[in-house]
């Protein structure tokens, strides 16, 4: 059995999983964001709730730039106190159990590579739509990390630059699913501005105000998918995150790509866009796969083989 931990901005989700990638049990707790001591206390309490004699390894999905070999976290995303902390070594030394750690967006990409929508492709891009845009670039069947471990940090791609102020707009902000939902919720006076279900009810019912904001969102996404197609020329682009469960998202992204190409006939790219198989549990599956890669090498067989 493996203990798999997904550290998110709101919750720490954790699960017991077996080598066949089955979730035996899962739960979550509120993520402490105050300081390293509070964070580690919650993490250690979570680990100690389990029978460690039955745990073969601990697999962690974490925000930030991650050196998967050393276990050092850089920057830490929503957790700046994790910068330069070797979370892998701290847990291994405390409990004497093998630990792996990987960036959360790359975990989502690994889940799709292992068991999901890009498992039959050598070259692909996985985009995870959430508060920002997480990314995973897969080349020759492996997640590409880059010399500074920042390959796939799609959120930092600039969308536009103001030539006077030199200020930029960013892919991660302009294509934030969370912000898109909030915009529509505010206009439609939905009490809970994070209520994605209510927002997509308006979108699916073709409400003009909701549809206009959503189409703008999809056009921005389509623009960057085309850009990525020219830079990487992947076989497929997979769209993940909670909103990828909505069929209308893929429909309007494909519409947006065709609209852009119609008005810009020099475009030759024809990106294949699909939905990710995994949504909320993607990071758990990907973290487990990274554990297997770290300890057994790249050629980990699918549990179905």
Could you list some keywords that capture this structure?
305 residues, alpha/beta, 23% strand, five-stranded mixed β-sheet, 38% helix, 9 helices
How would you describe what is shown here?
Helix 6 crosses helix 7 and helix 7 (208-232) packs across helix 8 (247-263). The protein is globular, with a radius of gyration of 20 Å. It has nine helices and 15 strands. The strands form four sheets. It has a five-stranded mixed β-sheet, sandwiched between helices. It has helices at residues 36-48, 87-95, 104-115, 171-174, 177-187, 196-204, 208-232, 247-263, 282-296, and strands at 2-7, 11-17, 23-30, 57-62, 65-66, 72-74, 85-86, 98-103, 124-129, 133-139, 142-143, 158-161, 168-170, 236-240, 273-275. The mean pLDDT is 94. The longest helix is centred in the C-terminal third of the chain and has 25 residues, at 208-232. The protein has 305 residues and is of the alpha/beta class. Pfam families: ROK (PF00480).
Summarize the structure.
The chain is of the alpha/beta class.
Please write out the topology.
Blueprint: E1 2-7, E2 11-17, E3 23-30, H1 36-48, E4 57-62, E5 65-66, E6 72-74, E7 85-86, H2 87-95, E8 98-103, H3 104-115, E9 124-129, E10 133-139, E11 142-143, E12 158-161, E13 168-170, H4 171-174, H5 177-187, H6 196-204, H7 208-232, E14 236-240, H8 247-263, E15 273-275, H9 282-296
Number of helices: 9
Question: Quick one: how many beta strands?
Answer: 15
Q: State the end-to-end CA separation.
A: 19 Å
Q: Indicate the proportion of strand residues.
A: 15-25%
The overall average pLDDT, rounded, is: 94
Instruction: Identify the overall geometry.
Output: globular
Helix content: 25-40%
What is the oligomeric state here? single chain
Sheet/helix structural class: alpha/beta
Low-confidence stretches: none
Main sheet strand line-up: 3-2-1-4-8
Task: Write down the secondary-structure element order.
Answer: EEEHEEEEHEHEEEEEHHHHEHEH
Cα gyration radius (Å): 20 Å
């Amino acid at each position: 059995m493996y203990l798999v931990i997904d550290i998110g901005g709101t919750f720490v989700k954790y699960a017991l999983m077996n080598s066949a990638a089955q979730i035996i049990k899962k739960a979550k707790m509120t993520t402490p964001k105050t300081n390293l001591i509070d964070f580690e206390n919650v993490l250690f309490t979570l680990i100690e709730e389990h029978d460690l004699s039955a745990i073969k390894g601990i697999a962690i999905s974490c925000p930030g730039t991650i050196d998967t070999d050393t276990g050092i976290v850089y920057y830490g995303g929503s957790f700046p106190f994790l910068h330069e902390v070797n979370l892998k070594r701290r847990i291994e030394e405390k409990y004497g159990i093998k630990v792996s750690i990987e960036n959360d967006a790359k975990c989502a990409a690994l889940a799709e590579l292992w068991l999901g929508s890009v498992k039959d492709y050598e070259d692909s891009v996985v985009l995870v739509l959430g508060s920002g845009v997480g990314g995973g670039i897969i080349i020759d069947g492996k997640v590409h990390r880059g010399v500074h471990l920042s390959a796939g940090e799609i959120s930092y791609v600039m969308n536009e630059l103001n030539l006077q102020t030199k200020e930029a707009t960013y892919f991660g902000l302009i294509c934030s699913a969370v912000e898109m939902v909030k915009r529509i919720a505010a206009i439609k006076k939905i009490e809970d501005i994070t209520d994605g279900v209510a927002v997509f009810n308006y979108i699916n019912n073709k409400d003009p105000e909701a549809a206009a904001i959503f189409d703008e969102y999809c056009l921005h996404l389509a623009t960057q998918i085309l850009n990525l197609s020219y830079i990487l020329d992947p076989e497929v682009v997979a769209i993940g995150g909670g909103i990828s469960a909505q069929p209308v998202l893929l429909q309007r992204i494909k519409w947006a790509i065709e609209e852009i190409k119609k008005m810009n006939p020099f475009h030759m790219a024809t990106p294949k866009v699909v939905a990710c198989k995994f949504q909320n549990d993607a990071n758990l599956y990907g973290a487990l796969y990274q554990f297997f890669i770290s300890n057994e090498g790249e050629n980990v067989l699918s549990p179905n083989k």
